[in-house]
Amino acid sequence: MTQTIELNVNGARRVVTADPGTPLIYVLRNDLKLKGTRFGCGAGVCGCCTVLLDGRGVQSCNTPVSAAQGREVTTIEGLGGKAGTHPLQQAFVDEQAGQCGYCLTGVVMGAAALLGRNPSPTEAQIRSELDIHLCRCGAYDRILRAVRRASEMIGQRGGQEGRLR
Amino acid sequence: MTIDSLPPSLARNRRLDRWVEIRTDGVVEVRTGKVEIGQGIVSALAQIAAEELDVDYARIRMIPADTGRSPNEGVTAGSRSTMDGGGALRQACAEVRDAFLRAAARRLDADVDELFVRDGTIHRKASNESASYWELSAEVDLARDADGRAAPKRADQLTLVGKPLPRLDLPDKVAGAGVYVHDLELPGMLHGRVVRPPSYRAVLHAVDGKRIETMPGVRAVVRDGRFLGVVAAREEQAVAAAAALANCAVWHQAEDLPDVDAIPAFLRSLPSKAKILSEKGVPQATGAHAVSARYSRPFLAHASIGPACAVARVHGGSIEVWCQSQSIHPTRLDIAKTLGVAPDTITVRHVQGAGCYGHNAADDAALDAVLLARAVEGHPVRLQWSHEDELAWSPFGPAMVVAMEGAVDDAGRIVDWRHELWSNPHIARPGLQESPSLLAAWHLDQPFAQPPGIDALPGIQPTSERNAVPIYDFPNQRVVLNALERLPVRTGTLRAIGGFLNTYAIECFMDELAHAAGVDPVELRLNHLSDERAIAVIKAARERSGLASRSRHDGSGHDGSRGMGLGFARYSNEAAYAAVVVEVEAGATINVVRAVAAVDCGRTINPDGVKNQIEGGIVQAVSWVLKEQVRFDRTRITTRTWDDYPILRFSEAPPVEVSIIDRPDEPSLGVGEAVAGPVAAAIANAVFDAIGVRVRDLPLTRERMVAEINDA
């Protein structure tokens, strides 16, 4: 049964009408028109649809919208905050890390979750954190370089930008 | 250049205003028939256009292809877009630039020789006079045909081509902008899902759609033969309705698939027609080291990260389709054929999808969307495949077998070379055969026959035999294709098509012959090559990887777990040259710890774009070789999730180093498919170097390695 659901998405209060069991991704994409969260497998195992719930990465394709109530949802559109562009997004462009790009927003969100709690991860920590994310075009090397670059950018700027609200 | 030597794609689309529009506001709109499928081609074409027009890269606006206005450049495939599409656009832009120069000369009362162009402004040397493209655009008529009179720039005149300019599409992609067909949002849009049969030839016995029609949000339940689908207001409602519809469908199925673990024998047992691809000399096996070996690859899935998607609207006798097709014009033909309508009642627009590595489900989704949209006239329907259907119902890269026989003498000369391959035709794309090549067309109440596929098209090399005729100079050789008519599994072109297994077999067999004769496998290659560009990439890869400094790579002194191997090819013997060295840690399982590639693609448009393609091609090929195999039981495809079809992950991806041998005076050559075969052979050769064991059937799984190690 549909009901009114109140969400906090990218710092703003949003109200939607949906079945509480609806996967969060459909609410984000279709009700809130936040198209940057991509649908991949629908089973939470490819990482495409990763968003942040209270700063932690979750797969929005198998997270019911009801589970996001009362928590802060951050999507790729809100990652950069007031600055608009997060260091990760800048670093991905700087490193030309991507081909088709379909996996990238999920990868960036996964990396943001990591840098949020550990602004200076080791290469092994990056690989381990991102291991759920699949990139069929094979841009792994460049993506790893981009995450390292973002980590350095955040370190140089005092670590503030890596932290999430 | 003359009118008779125009690049073929320009000769077919001669009107210059189909390619370029100079706007008065300083923007240059460029149309191309080639489409972005993740490979970065649209950025490379923008770079070519900016170069030839002498405008800033940032002024170029690439207009996505549609069947209405864009030049018809057929299919974006075969690593030919830079060669063909780029060649045509280059000449078109050179002619546009020339037209503007002449207009400026008239306005400034100057000779063309006195003028030069800087970012779209035409200056007169030694004076302050100038006129810009944007000022002149009203008086320059581009509604005329290319005539071949203006010459594109020489290599020494290039200023942008050859530079690592950033891709145009990446900022939007990392920002999360709505760049994919999945993201389209049209007024009144509804959501559709299709329910596929459980197996290829399943017969629909009964389905009761009545219950589905009353589910929340459902606007239509579509049944046409064994094509089943739903349309609903909300996406999750369409997903739920499709699941319910699938549950109430009763199917009759047959056990009509072969044993997935005995594919090579199955392929060789099928009726076939032999075609001799090359025959020369007299085999001289006597007194030499004779070797024979058989190689195979399984069915491979495209396994794109995102499922196919399309949007269609049917209204008042006209049909609009937005889809991620590589072939918008041919796909339009097959949709028209399926529906029995005139092609010009259909407009197909390209919108990007998730990564595309060959003929996948993009075209099928376009027809699916149209069939669903017919049920809700006037409403756009956004149709998305499930991930499970994406894996199980897309065309697969076909399984193939190659049997090699050869002999090498004590001096390390290959005196006999025989290559025999078994393959069905790889091409099953739309618009080429009598019957539509679109999945749903075969499932309708009045079904079209699934066409058998074709191996050769005018102007492109036959698909299964690519790279089968060796680039090496052998005095005695015989290369035979055993052409299979069709397979019981749906197949289509996948990156590197037949070139993948043919190269894998050739490049492994070179190492096997080297081992038999006790010579260095890289030297064996160099001693049988006269093509200087081939020699150059092999030497570059050897040096950069450190392979040259190793005292042995003949498999004789296996040092336990680390090994290095090389593979080389010029893709389809006409595209880019690539040599790859990989280093592995080998045992029961294989890790590729490093890959080094050297590439020659003629004039490099964008070195970073080339590196990106080569890096991705290497990672994808490592994944194919180590992990991938489509599986089925006797009835149905059982590869339906990432658990069934694992691909290479972050934790397994090797660092990759790519070097480019740039040849600005040579034509640009495609790189998208250049490394797949070389990588596969390099891995197998490195494993042999490490532990003296060779598994010839792909993938090189733990089970196969253990079996081979135990046999050894």
Describe the protein in words.
The complex is a heterodimer of chains A (165) and B (712). Chain A folds into 2 domains: 3-76, Beta-grasp domain (Ubiquitin-like (UB roll), Roll), CATH 3.10.20; 81-156, DNA polymerase, domain 1. Chain A is α+β, with helices and mostly antiparallel strands and 165 residues long. Chain A is globular, with a radius of gyration of 15 Å. Chain A is built from 6 helices and 5 strands, in the order ββαβββααααα. Chain A is 35% helix and 15% strand. Chain B has 3 domains: 3-167, Aldehyde oxidase/xanthine dehydrogenase, molybdopterin binding domain (Aldehyde Oxidoreductase, domain 4); 181-254 and 302-393, Aldehyde oxidase/xanthine dehydrogenase, molybdopterin binding domain (Aldehyde Oxidoreductase, domain 4), CATH 3.30.365; 400-426 and 463-711, 2-Layer Sandwich (Aldehyde Oxidoreductase, domain 4), CATH 3.30.365.10. Chain B is 28% helix and 21% strand. At the A-B interface, helix 1, helix 3, helix 4, helix 5 and helix 6 of A face helix 5 and helix 15 of B.
